[in-house]
Amino acid sequence: MIEAVGLTKRYGERVAVDNLSFTVRPGQVTGFLGPNGAGKSTTMRMILSLDAPTSGRVTVNGKAFTALDNPMREVGALLDAKAIHGGRSAYHHLLCLAQSNNLPPRRVDEVLDMVGLSGVARKRSKGFSLGMGQRLGIATALLGDPRILMFDEPVNGLDPEGILWIRNLMKSLAAEGRTVLVSSHLMSEMEHTADHLLVIGRGRMIADCTVREFIDRNSALAVRVRTPDSAFLAEAVTRSGGKVAAQPDGALLVTELPLQRVGDLAFEHGVRLHELSPLQASLEQAFMELTRDSVEYHAAVPSTSQEVR
Ligand SMILES: Nc1ncnc2c1ncn2[C@@H]1O[C@H](COP(=O)(O)OP(=O)(O)OP(=O)(O)O)[C@@H](O)[C@H]1O
């Protein structure tokens, strides 16, 4: 379990983490989400006592990280996969860590096997691809067989196979009853991996809830309608308080009216329907909606649908 209370970090005038209080529980994957610069890495560094909070505190299993007797057995973390001595082989990198942390050397082969690096274990890690480097970083985190695991943007730059592997690994670690905290700015990724979400923007907590609750609370349900009488139905919907956007495939996307009401309107106006379906916004859409005001840098986004009226 990881617990933060009023956790705050300032760098001069800049407040990187602003009064965060949260609990990361065992047995589930907790997604730590936020746009670039939201304060995710700073929070993770404070959990590991690599940065000192300006105020507030964070504990791991009830203790400050520095007070843990054998940190590698309690917490494993992947913060920066590149922070590895390139001249060493994966095997020797892990063996050094095992020896200096009083861990059994057989654990090195076990974790190399778990991350699929056994075949290249004796090669210098300097020649490793991004994906191999990530796997080695994950092997390092798993070395002490810790009950708490933290991964900072673990899928960054990975190919689809690597992403799927990491996703399944996170889930299986949580299914074993471990505490798994994984940061990402990729909402679509968290949608498939996380059970619980901590969403931050500009250092502040925006949401602390399950993935389902997050989508339900933050995304309006839209209704997709296809009809040969689009213009007529669009007018009727708009008059009844709905909003209509034309989709590139000719369908209409209706918001602010429930599906039943759209169906009834079509019936009342004698409009033939070829499709009437609910469209739940994805986590990506819900997240962008929620953090719109807390993104550090905005760029113009080309619109994908056209307002009808
Ligand atoms: N050592 C530092 N000195 C000054 N400012 C810092 C330092 N570290 C982080 N910051 C600032 O604190 C804020 C939070 O940064 P942080 O790296 O924690 O965000 P993040 O959510 O991990 O972002 P990203 O997804 O881009 O990695 C940013 O505005 C960043 O510029």
Automatic annotation (TrEMBL):
SUPFAM superfamilies: P-loop containing nucleoside triphosphate hydrolases (SSF52540). It comes from the Bacteria. The keyword Manganese does not apply. Keywords: ATP-binding, Nucleotide-binding, Transport. The keyword Nucleotidyltransferase does not apply. Gene3D superfamilies: P-loop containing nucleotide triphosphate hydrolases. GO terms for molecular function: ATP binding. SMART domains: AAA. Pfam families: ABC_tran. Residues 2-227 form the ABC transporter domain. InterPro entries: AAA+_ATPase, ABC_transporter-like_ATP-bd, P-loop_NTPase. Belongs to the ABC transporter superfamily. This is ATP-binding cassette domain-containing protein. It comes from Dactylosporangium roseum.
